[in-house]
Amino acid sequence: MCADSMSAVIKVDVAPYKSDGGYDFTIWNTGGNGSTKSVNKKYDEGTGVCIQAGMGEYSSGEWGLFGPWSCGQA
User: Fold this and answer.
1) Taking 60 as the threshold, does the pLDDT of residue 1 lie above it?
2) Residue 58 predicted with pLDDT over 60
3) Which of 10, 25, 30, 70 gets the most CB atoms within 10 Å of its CB?
4) Distance of alpha carbon 55 from alpha carbon 1, whole angstroms
């Protein structure tokens, strides 16, 4: 949940991982009110995937308040 006019945003980094804080793509959830966002990507089983959640204003592209990276496998 985010404050009014703010959206949840996730940075996604798929192995091989980027260095210096890089990532492969972002996912924005601008739906509000506890909505969810579904994104379909296909990776080989066992591929490493890391995410980092934050918040921002989608219309301006400004974001911040990111937590730590969390990693797992597809």
Assistant:
1) no
2) yes
3) 10
4) 9
